[in-house]
Structure formats: C-alpha cells, structure tokens
Amino acid sequence: MGGVGIAGGGLGTLALALVGYFFFGIDPFVTQQVVSQFDGRGAQEQGKVGTPGDQAGQFVDIVSANVNDVWATKVKGYQAPKVVLYEQGTQTGCGLGQSAMGPFYCPNDASVYLDLSFWREMETKLGASGADFARAYVIAHEFGHHVQTLTGTSRKVQEAQQGARNQAEANKYSVALELQADCYAGVWAANASAVSGGRVAMDNGDLEEGMKTANAIGDDTLQKQSTGRVTPERFTHGTSAQRVEWLKRGYESGDAAQCDTFAE
User: Fold this and answer.
1) Which phi and psi angles does 186 have, rounded to 5°?
2) At 49, is the pLDDT very low, low, confident or very high (cuts 50, 70, 90)?
C-alpha cells in the first residue's frame, strides 16, 4: 500500500494490507512486511499488455489512453506507463502481484497492474459505486502515482519517510501522496473531454459516483467498519472527507498545480 513500498499506490481498497485490516484488524504495515517475504507460490500468469478484446478490458484501454493524453499536455516529456491486466497473480517489477492487492502502480517497471475482479469486490464489500466514472477514477488514481514518479514526488516522499521519527509521521507523507493521486484523478476527469474531442466526457452525475467511491474507501470509514473505532495515526490514504475533497478539487480546478496536498 502507499505510493512507495511494495508497489505504488492503489486506492487502498483491495490491497492485502486492507484485506487484513478490514476483516481482521491487522495493522497494514505488518501485512506489508509479510507480503514482502511471500515466496511467490500459487496461481500466476503472464500479465496481458495491449488492447484486450473483452468489454471490461476495452474500457480500461479507452480510459488509459485518455488519461495519457491528458497528462501529455501537462507534464513535459511525459512517458506513458504500461497497463497490465492479469488474473489471480503475475510477476511484476515490485514482486508478485496478486488479485487481492487490487489495482497498484509499480515504479520499478513503470506499470499499472489491474485485476478487473477488484471492481466487483469494491462494490459488493465496500459499497463503492459501479458507475463507469467510479471505475475510471480508480484507474486514473494509479496513473496519478505514475505522474508522481515522473515528477520526483514519490522519491521525495520516500526520503522523507525514511527520515521520519516514527510510523505515524511516515504515514502522514503517505496520506499526502494518496490524496494527491486522488486530486490528479480529478484533474484528468476535468480535461478528458477537451483532449478527446468530447468522446470521453464527464458530467456532474459522474462526479457524484466518483465521490461515492472515494467516500467508501477513506481510512476512517474502513477503520470504523473493521474495528469500530478510528485511529488517525494509522491513516495511510486519508479520511473519506479528504478523499472526496481532493478528488473534487482536482475536478473543479482541472489544474495539477492545485493538488499540493503536502502544503496542507
């Protein structure tokens, strides 16, 4: 989980750390350490790169192409990440990727990894929206972590975390990184229509569905569901209100410069 560590980012929805946290109350940091020692046994496949033939895969392809087009206008020398679809498990530049981890970005091979079953899990277990934009928001969030890698933000956060006095302080940097990725998802949505000639477009109803998903995966909401109490020092992705606010801020401004979550 988080923009650094085993892999980049994720929404924190279906990561192994969240599965342990949501269902068993296990500290995500502990789960992450266990995952790093996983030996890779179990079902694996070679992830698929390129345009897939099924409807869900084509949706990912359309959204990914549009996200790349948006960021190419905003980041000088932008280079698109690979998008890898897989089922159950696949090897990545950050180690073994598993479907239980949900969507994640690996900076080592500049790739976004998606097991499409995570959408169903988000909707049935966490109460997220099943609307197209809500699903696209998840993808755009991972591309946000790619942008953070290209701009050097992820590296600076990792350095700051290494110098942190304790885990609670380190987590604050993780929260800022994740909220910025949420804001970047909003920036993409605001510019999607312009770069696609209207072929990919959002309306206010779409934004509401995205905010429903952001609200469902806030740290405070997940903590209440799993343990009945809220422990702010263990936040790694931000509260529901923060995630909604930064997604909305990115959408309403359409400007990546307005996504300085570290200043706040």
Assistant:
1) -65, -40
2) low
**Cα distance between residue 167 and residue 38, in whole Å:** 23
Q: What region does 151 belong to: left with phi over 0, alpha with psi -120 to 50, or beta? A: alpha
What are the tens digits of pLDDT across the range 170-200?
Answer: 999 999 999 999 999 999 999 999 999 988 8
Sign of CA dihedral 31, 264, 155, 137: positive
How far apart are alpha carbons 159 and 168 in whole angstroms?
A: 15
Measured CA to CA in angstroms, residue 236 lies from 122, 178, 219 at distances of 18, 8, 7
Confirm if 95 and 106 have CB atoms less than 8 A apart.
no
First CA to last CA distance, the chain: 22
Q: What angle do CA 42, 45, 49 make, to 5 degrees?
A: 150
Task: Determine the average pLDDT of the residues in 162-176.
Answer: 93
Question: pLDDT for 203-234, tens place per residue?
Answer: 778 888 888 888 787 888 888 877 888 888 88
Identify whether the C-beta of residue 93 lies closer than 8 Å to the C-beta of residue 108: yes
Question: Distance (Å, rounded) from C-alpha 128 to C-alpha 108?
Answer: 30
User: Which residue, 218, 147, 207, is CA-closest to 179?
Assistant: 218
Q: What is the residue extent of each domain of the chain? A: 16-258
